[in-house]
Write a sequence for this structure.
């Protein structure tokens, strides 16, 4: 476990191997608009298995359900991809939060978000209801957020990509014992 400030500092020094950090933080904000336009919180993804592994493709499919990565039609499934700001007592950080973690953070499945959002054939067009439901999740319970930091190349420039890959409600008993242990260590007891 580390603070957001420690995670930020350590992620800037990440080498060729991805590093994982666990941070206790609260959801502060979900970016739902960019320059006044609604930001998509979900996308339709390919559910074909990747060759050579049991993992799913998960690449974005076009409106007809065709996956360019697999080069064939796919059964599309709704996946979440949200830009979230997490805060601890001293700092905050914006993280791209992928499907599994986003479901925990938002408290909704991809299909539920799509149904509220109004984008796609299943939506009811009530974006305000979706945004209200997400705002109600902000600053609730602290969560253990799993963050992955790895080097990526973007436009020929190498930089650190830090994303949220997991989130879980905090176990208050374990967290309390860990904090008590830290206090005893600080006091030298």
């Amino acid at each position: 476990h580390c603070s957001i400030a420690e995670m930020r500092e350590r992620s800037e020094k990440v080498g060729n191997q991805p590093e994982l950090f666990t941070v206790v933080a609260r959801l502060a904000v979900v970016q739902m608009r960019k320059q006044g336009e609604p930001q998509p919180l979900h996308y339709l993804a390919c559910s074909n298995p990747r060759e050579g592994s049991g993992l799913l493709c998960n690449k974005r499919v076009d409106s007809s359900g065709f996956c360019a990565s697999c080069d064939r039609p796919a059964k599309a499934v709704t996946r979440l991809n949200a830009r979230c700001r997490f805060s601890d007592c001293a700092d905050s950080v914006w993280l791209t939060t992928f499907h599994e973690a986003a479901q925990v953070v938002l408290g909704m499945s991809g299909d539920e978000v799509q149904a509220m959002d109004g984008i796609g054939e299943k939506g009811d067009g009530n974006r305000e209801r979706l945004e209200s439901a997400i705002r109600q999740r902000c600053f609730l319970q602290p969560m253990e957020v799993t963050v992955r930091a790895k080097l990526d190349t973007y436009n020929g420039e190498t930089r650190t990509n830090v994303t949220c890959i997991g989130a879980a409600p905090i176990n208050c008993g374990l967290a309390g014992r860990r904090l008590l242990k830290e206090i005893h260590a600080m006091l030298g007891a």
